[in-house]
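Entry 12.
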Amino acid sequence: MSEYQYYEFLAIDHPLDERQRAELRALSTRARITATSFVNEYHWGDFRGNPDALMERYFDAFLYLANWGTRRLMIRLPRGLLDLGVAERYCTGDAASAWAADGHVILSLSSEDEDEYWEEGEGRLASIALVRSELAAGDLRLLYLAWLLSVQAEDVGDEEAEPPVPPGLRALSAPLRAVADFLRLDEDLLTAAAAASAEVQTVAESAGELARWIEDLPGAEKDALLLQAARGEGSQVQAVLQRRFRAERSPGSTPSDAGTRTVGELRDAATAQREERERVAAERKAQEMARQARAAAAREQRLDALALREEQAWQHVDSLISSKNRANTTRQSPSCWTCRHLLNATATATRSASDSGNFVNSTSASPA
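Predicted 3D structure (tokens):
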């Protein structure tokens, strides 16, 4: 099997200018480079650039996929939207790490496992990139998934306590679901972890309420936010305002207290979840096999019973053939279907009887 590597970078907050695109072009003559993206794939050789350095300097999201099983995802946010200390509380190992560079915090999530079949990377980052906006708005579920990835990779010991558990783990958003699938996060581990996650308490928002809330902000603060937006940082301003507004209206939406379980307890819960899931699946499979066996036995019994009435069956066939109602034969009524199976069964029974020397003359005479 040939080699396959896929690299995709996205510039979300600020488009790449001409100089930056030229710098990127120097790294690859074959890459597809636009004002917002850098995409390349390799079937031989390797990328000359350093993804970490490119994230620090140019991009806000990155996805890497190789057909030998390596997968990597990186997200970059301004430090005003993601505190490094909060990120490091969840990103504690090689599978999930966080660092600061030039006013940004960068998350790196990776998975090493052999894929059963070859998957291509094109289009995947588009379904994942929106987790950045969710994280910027104060949704910490991505960070908790990063911590579960470290648990799965055995980067943390059994005696360590879990970090704060964010609400909403039992109902992941589509981008979070895409992250979990891409990084092959164990479903039983995720289900066990989600058992301690509260439901998201949301209150319906109205434009009037939001307008009144903004009106009550201090004037100096509003001026600073407007200046930030004028400098091209409108998405950051939006994230800050949304996070503060929702936090004030929905207390408890952001976790602050550490979880009550240890890693070992969580792993035990995941094992129990897996065993129960496999037991239920095996039980359902056995029930389905038994149902199919009963259906097959009933069908054979029905055909055997019909074979004993061969003469009547032939007479019924003759009646259908000679009928002036052509629609009956055109539609192939259930009776015709049954008779065809009857004749097949009869032929089989006749051959069997002939082989055993018990040929019955009355059943061998059939209409020409």
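Annotation: Strands lie at 5-10, 32-33, 37-42, 61-66, 70-78, 96-101, 104-112. The chain has two domains: 5-201+252-275, 308-368.
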